[in-house]
From TrEMBL:
<dbReference type="Pfam" id="PF00440">
    <property type="entry name" value="TetR_N"/>
</dbReference>
<dbReference type="InterPro" id="IPR001647">
    <property type="entry name" value="HTH_TetR"/>
</dbReference>
<protein>
    <submittedName>
        <fullName>TetR/AcrR family transcriptional regulator</fullName>
    </submittedName>
</protein>
<keyword id="KW-0804">Transcription</keyword>
<feature type="domain" description="HTH tetR-type">
    <location>
        <begin position="9"/>
        <end position="69"/>
    </location>
</feature>
<feature type="DNA-binding region" description="H-T-H motif">
    <location>
        <begin position="32"/>
        <end position="51"/>
    </location>
</feature>
<dbReference type="InterPro" id="IPR009057">
    <property type="entry name" value="Homeodomain-like_sf"/>
</dbReference>
<keyword id="KW-0238">DNA-binding</keyword>
<keyword id="KW-0805">Transcription regulation</keyword>
<dbReference type="GO" id="GO:0003677">
    <property type="term" value="F:DNA binding"/>
</dbReference>
<dbReference type="InterPro" id="IPR036271">
    <property type="entry name" value="Tet_transcr_reg_TetR-rel_C_sf"/>
</dbReference>
Length: 199
């Protein structure tokens, strides 16, 4: 039986989404092909019809996760151009800190495995990370030094993403809910202060 192009694309989308959830929960080393196919509701044959290896599925899940973050930020900036940053920081350190690990942000949950990944995955991650940094930077206030505003905003975007990602990582790892919330509050305040115009 031959499947339509639409069915194949729907299956691929489902496999990528399931892989992203499994890799976030189990890590690259803990996620076997059986877990990936079970989560996606497909056979091993269907999985290998879309990906040559677990590594390729991981790379695709990582890139998809970073792209979803970038698109979410772009949409938020379009809806709330003046106060998108406060809303984003609150959402990231609120819901994205407390949601199921399978639904968490790809940046803190998948980056540790990317460090150990092959060169192709790391290069693809780097390119997507640069796009994410540029997306965040475009929405930040301009600097006061002429000619340095773009570099300054990109540096602040890197700082913001590192603070949020690291903050969520610490807050998620803490078993004490009060400490987790405290970490989130401290990071939120520090992130917003660091990005204020003139800093």
């Amino acid at each position: 039986m031959r499947y339509s192009a639409v069915h194949k694309q729907e299956t691929r989308t489902r496999v990528i989404a399931a892989a992203g959830q499994v890799f976030r929960k189990e890590g690259y080393g803990g996620a076997g092909i059986d877990a990936l196919t079970k989560a996606a509701g497909v056979t091993n044959g269907a999985f290998y019809g879309h990906f040559k290896s677990k590594g390729e599925a991981f790379r695709t899940a990582v890139l998809t996760g970073l792209e979803e973050l970038r698109q979410g930020i772009a949409a938020l900036k379009a809806r709330q151009p003046k106060d998108w940053l406060t809303t984003f920081v609150g959402y990231y350190l609120g819901y994205k800190r407390t949601c199921d690990l399978g639904e968490s942000c790809a940046l803190p949950s998948l980056s540790p495995d990317v460090m150990r990944a092959d060169d192709e995955t790391r290069s693809a991650y780097t390119a997507e990370l640069k796009r994410l940094i540029e997306e965040v930077a475009v929405g930040l206030p301009e600097g006061e030094i002429p000619g340095q505003s773009e570099t300054r905003r990109e540096d602040q975007a890197i700082l913001l993403l590192a603070m949020l990602s690291g903050g969520v990582t610490l807050a998620r790892a803490a078993s004490d809910p009060a400490l987790s919330k405290r970490i989130a509050d401290v990071i939120a305040q520090a992130a917003l202060t660091a990005i204020e115009p003139g800093n």
